[in-house]
């Protein structure tokens, strides 16, 4: 099975979701070190939007990926599911989860300040955003099939 987490950039909210799913982040309290030690968190260039990033595999071998979709998360989810059906007709082996409903305003401000090359300020916003999003993402993960 493969699981794809989608967010605007592919390297913030979807990375937090992926590592919660994989069990590398637990609970709702995470600190700055936890956040910035995650592979791929705030590391991918915006030019990589739309390209899957491999986050890891869980204990049962499920491969987990993140993808940046700008503001087209729901469209990408729909298109991916349609393409899966066209190619092999079986969406049970794939899950595409749009995490955009969990994105906090802090993460949005982080993206804006990053574009202005204000890295220190962007990292602070991303950290606040990740802390706010963790509880929402944990709730979202309860709704998906494992």
Q: How is this structure best described in words?
A:
- This protein is α/β, with parallel strands linked by helices.
- The protein has one domain.
- It has 5 helices and 4 strands, in the order E-H-H-E-E-H-E-H-H.
- Strands 2-3-1-4 form a 4-stranded mixed β-sheet, sandwiched between helices.
- A hairpin with a 5-residue loop joins strand 2 and strand 3.
- Helix 1 crosses helix 5 and helix 4 packs antiparallel against helix 5.
- It is globular.
- The relative contact order is 0.23.
- The mean pLDDT is 82.
Q: What form results from the Cα inertia axes?
A: globular
Q: What low-confidence regions span 5 or more consecutive residues with pLDDT below 50?
A: none
- Kindly report the spatial arrangement of strands forming the biggest sheet: 2-3-1-4
What's the total helix number? 5
Q: How many domains would you count in the coordinates?
A: 1
Number of strands: 4
Nearest-integer average pLDDT: 82
Taking the alpha carbons of the first and last residues, their distance comes to: 9 Å
- Backbone CA Rg: 15 Å
Largest sheet: 4 strands, mixed
Order of helical and strand elements: EHHEEHEHH
């Amino acid at each position: 099975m493969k699981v794809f987490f989608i967010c605007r950039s592919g390297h913030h909210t979807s990375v937090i979701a992926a590592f919660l799913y994989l069990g590398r982040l637990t609970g709702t309290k995470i600190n700055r070190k936890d956040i910035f030690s995650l592979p791929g968190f705030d590391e991918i260039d915006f030019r990589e939007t739309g390209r899957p990033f491999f986050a890891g595999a869980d204990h049962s071998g499920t491969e987990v990926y993140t993808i940046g979709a700008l503001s087209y998360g729901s469209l990408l989810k729909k298109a991916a599911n349609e393409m899966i059906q066209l190619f092999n007709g079986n969406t049970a082996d794939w899950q595409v989860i749009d995490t955009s409903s969990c994105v906090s305003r802090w993460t949005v401000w982080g993206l804006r300040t990053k574009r202005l090359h204000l890295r220190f300020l962007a990292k602070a916003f991303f950290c606040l955003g990740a802390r706010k999003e963790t509880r929402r993402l944990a709730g979202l993960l309860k709704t998906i099939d494992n």
